[in-house]
Design a protein that fits this description.
40% of the residues lie in helices and 16% in strands. The chain is an alpha/beta fold. The chain has an eight-stranded mixed beta sheet, sandwiched between helices.
């Protein structure tokens, strides 16, 4: 099956951004849309980068939004220190520093996967700063998170031995196992390139520490999610085996006033809605963010 690519080439995406200095590290940041547009910040997931959003950003920018994307530390074009003690708390501070350097005050926030934990920490710190919040598939409730076998292995004691053995082929197989729709080989090539740059695939065991952080901060982060007073949207792929339909069941009970855009297809979308069905994600986000 010849699946057309949806993401622009990674090289074009990175050429449109720049790096900023955050402490001892350089961080890749990109801005799209009119400088005076309504601010929105997009936070990517594990193990990829801001390039995940590249097929969605043009629609948001065309709607008059000022879109900020960045690669978190250890991801994409940002620095990837080998022995760094990565944490969600540090990533949230990194986002706050980028906001400060870029003159961003209040902003809407859109988060996916690993990024939802960063988003929850930002909400817990300063909910008044976030004007509205949109969530894509991620472990909002740690007890519902179902990591796949490869994640469990990389997070375990054998992780440091297994991570260097990760190849493009193994990466693609693991990614396809959590998708509901086919993704073009060219897109998978670029997703892998963002992971593998500067040996980033070796960092997986350290980055996966977020699984433990989610458990430690569960009450605080869940409370921040459920008590957020602003408009909330969930754009969700129900075919995701990690954080799919079973998460939506709880969200409908706990957050009945939130909007839910379930990408049920057919075929139903899986773990990467913004890559599997960027048109639907862009439409849902544009309607919500420009409301």
């Amino acid at each position: 099956m010849n699946v057309p690519r949806v993401l622009p080439p990674l090289s074009r995406w990175t050429a449109g951004g720049a790096t900023v200095q955050v402490g001892d590290h350089t961080v890749f940041v990109r801005h799209d849309g009119p400088p005076d547009g309504t601010p929105v910040t997009l936070i990517h997931g594990f193990p990829t980068s801001s390039h995940d959003w590249a097929a969605v950003v043009p629609a948001l920018a065309a709607a008059g939004l000022r879109v900020t994307t960045l690669d978190l530390l250890g991801f994409g074009e940002s620095d990837k220190p080998r022995r760094h003690p990565y944490s969600v708390l540090e990533q949230a501070s990194l986002v706050e520093e980028v906001w400060w350097q870029c003159g961003i005050g209040s902003t809407a926030l859109v988060a996916h996967d690993y990024g939802v934990s960063v988003g929850q920490e930002l909400l817990a710190r300063d909910p008044a700063r976030i004007t509205r919040m949109a969530w894509l598939n991620g472990g909002l409730y740690p007890d519902l998170h179902r990591p796949v076998l490869m994640q469990r292995l990389l997070h375990g004691p054998l992780g440091p031995l297994l991570a260097p053995l990760t190849t493009r082929r193994r990466f693609a197989a693991a990614l396809r196992a959590v998708l509901g729709r086919e993704v073009a080989d060219a897109d998978l090539d670029d997703l892998w390139a963002s992971v593998a740059r500067a040996g980033g695939h070796r960092l997986a065991p350290r980055l996966l520490g977020y699984i433990d952080e989610r458990r430690r901060h569960a009450a605080r982060w869940t409370g921040a999610l459920e008590s957020f007073p602003g408009p909330t949207l969930f754009v969700w792929g129900p075919a995701d085996p990690i954080s799919g339909a079973h998460v939506l069941e709880r969200l409908r009970v706990r957050m009945p006033r939130a909007r839910i855009e379930e990408l049920a297809g057919p075929p139903a979308v899986g773990h990467y809605p913004q890559v599997e069905d960027p048109a639907s994600v862009a439409g849902a986000l544009t309607d919500f963010l420009a409301d």
